[in-house]
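Exam revision sheet. Question 4 asks you to relate a sequence to its structure. Input first:
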Amino acid sequence: MGHKTCWLEVIHFEDTEGYTVIKDLEKRQSTVINTETRKQVAEKSKEAEIVESNATRESEITKAKNEEEFRTKLDTIQSLATLTLISLDPNLASAAFEQLIKYAKIGVGSRDSVILATMKATNTKRIATHDEVFKKIENLEVIDPIPQSHKNF
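Answer key, structure tokens:
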């Protein structure tokens, strides 16, 4: 078997003041640890920013798709041959106030009163809604599109 020669270096510290060498080593270790910790925190912060940026981008894409789908559905509704648009003019607003005064005690609100006034103005007697308040109004046929078994959910 051969022998391998290697050099061994010995460092001798002479501490002229109590614990200066140890304190110096502790400071250097602390500096190295702090530097490494800062690097890791910075890397994690960058990763978090990237994840947040990606999530924001995905949210904006989803929102744009939802808006596009909504506009498509709205265009479909507006292009129906059976659809008649009624302007909310002062006469209709006045009729809505009358409906509100008449039916507020059973739970009709301002939007519902505009619907009722519009129905009266167009001689409409039937409405498709899940709003229970319309069922309390005389001479009005309510078609509830939500099945009875799903009403408690």
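Marking note for examiners. The mean pLDDT is 84.
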